[in-house]
Every structure is written in C-alpha cells, then in structure tokens.
Amino acid sequence: MSASSWRACSLALAITVICVGCDGQNKRLNVPPQGFTGSPCQLQEFYTPMVENALRYDMCLAEIHFYPHSAKINGLGEWRLEQYCQTLADEGGTLHLETPHPDDELTAKRLENISDFFLASGFESGAVEVAVGLPQGRPLDGADAVRILQEGTVNDLESTSSD
Questions:
Q1: Which terminal CB of the chain, N or C, has fewer other CB atoms within 10 Å?
Q2: Of 113, 37, 103, 100, nearest to 74 (Cα)?
C-alpha cells in the first residue's frame, strides 16, 4: 500500500471517529446555581430535600451570605433566610451568625439586618432570636445513617443516637 493510500485511509478513519464520537452537545452539563431549568437533573427529587434538611438543621448564616465588607444581605443570604422563615414560622427559634469577628460593629449591623429581615417577613419582634455562634446541627452518626438507609426512615433518630 502506498503512502497516499495510508493517508487516505487514516483520514477516512479519523473522520469516521469524529462523526461517530461527537453526537452533539449534551443538553445539560450541570445544575444551574439557582432558579429553574427546562431539563432538571433526574436526581433532583432526592437531592433537594437532602439539602433543605441539612440547611434547616444547620440554622446558621455565614460571611458568604453578605456582600463583602458590608452588612447588606446578598441574594444567597436572602434565599437562605426565606428557607428559614418557612422553618421558623410555627415555633420560632434561634438563628446563628457564624463570623470570625463576633464583637465588631459590622457583625452587630449584620445581626440587625437579619432581625429586620424576619420583621419584614411578618415575624413578631423576638419570635426569632439572632445570635453570634456556630451552626447548631448535630452530625449524623454512621450507625444512624446505615439504619436510615436500611429502614428508609428517620423516625426515632434522636432516641437511638448518643450525643
């Protein structure tokens, strides 16, 4: 076989591989950071409740929920506070602000803005306590996670766990 025949065969093979291997762009590369999409991930129905439960168990805001060097709550912080409004609507509770500077003026303004958010959302003054502190969620023990997977339930989790 001559060199030109090898080149022709190689070119034909390369074109075939490219045409067969590239079947078009995938409709969905990743989940959008927020909002809705026309082609949701098939695992979303399982993932969303898991994230919401973890968020509600955490009951905490952090630096990422505010604009840098500002007391103004950003979009992520507003979304998270809206989630907490749903959780705290019935019984109230305490929301913590995790910050490396618990005693500075910026932290005091942030605490005030969080309280103002709850007041603007229809909560009575004092219904939700806002304090500086770490997240209050208790980590899930491995034995509890296995039991939940086996039983498919979270009932009686508190009574079987050791703190």
A1: C
A2: 113
